[in-house]
Amino acid sequence: MPKSPVTVIGLGPMGATMAETFLKNGHPTTVWNRTAAKAAPLVERGAVLAATPADALAASELVVVSQTDYTAMYDSLGGATDALKGRALVNLSSGSPDELRRAAEWAAQHGADLLTGGVMVPPPGIGQPGSYVFYSGPEDVLDRHRAALGELGDTTFVGADHGLAMLYYQAQLYLFWSTLTSYMHAIALLGTAGVSAEEFRPFAATTVSALAGDGPMGFLRILAETIDAGIHPGGANTLRMQAVGADHVVETSREAGVDTSGPTALRDLFWRAVDAGHGADGLSSVIEAIRAPAS
């Protein structure tokens, strides 16, 4: 059966890869970009370059937006709002949750349904095994276009609140960046003693794998259980003990002559939780300091 038409607004690395993926999967694909020249490679592959944003919106019910931010969407489509009526507007740009909620109101005012999304792979991963996208907003709109959107990656619906997709997206990014940054800090620390990154990598991999596992070191599971239960058992490994250990990481970094800002922030967070009365609790009690940030 013929594939449904799709319009892609924004042809940066992510948007261009999305448009190319739709084309490869047989969708009639219309594209529009503020710099029209970026569409040339896609036009050669069979895409139609819309002359105006209104023409781009008119070409397809499903309109995928991939731009720098939500302001770019308003700048691009603000003069073509009459053409938004009846469109499923799927914005996969980055922003803040409240910004996405306001965008949903803006779309609704012009007769469009907004699905917000967070793409959890870099451009080369679009459409590849393991790729997935968080979506939030009206689930019936996602269901109507799930086949087409599924060609970009697994469609992971997280709720009707338009801000949820971005909350998940930002949470995953923070986890990703902070994990890799701490890995780089560890490499720099060991590097002062002549240990190479490759020599350390197997040990780091063991730790990361163990954290995600079901064994006694499976702290992702352990923390999820204790935090959801609202209890933070300390036992023989209290938060105060770990805060003292964090002091030593800061001092070791200082002695080694590497940056101390990351370890210091972690150390200070631990001690703030201790000072709030959680010294005898376990590591999961740090969540209480995170939920009540310092003024």
From TrEMBL:
Residues 6-158 form the 6-phosphogluconate dehydrogenase NADP-binding domain. It comes from the Bacteria. The keyword Oxidoreductase applies. InterPro entries: 6PGD_dom2 (IPR013328), 6PGDH_NADP-bd (IPR006115), HIBADH-related (IPR015815), HIBADH-related_NP60_sf (IPR051265), NAD(P)-bd_dom_sf (IPR036291), RedAm-like_C (IPR048666). Its EC number is 1.1.-.-. It holds the Pfam family RedAm-like_C. It is an enzyme of class 1 (oxidoreductase). Keywords: Oxidoreductase. Belongs to the HIBADH-related family. PANTHER family: CYTOKINE-LIKE NUCLEAR FACTOR N-PAC, OXIDOREDUCTASE GLYR1-RELATED. The lineage of its organism: Bacteria, Bacillati, Actinomycetota, Actinomycetes, Streptosporangiales. GO terms for molecular function: oxidoreductase activity. This is NAD(P)-dependent oxidoreductase. Residues 161-291 form the NADPH-dependent reductive aminase-like C-terminal domain.
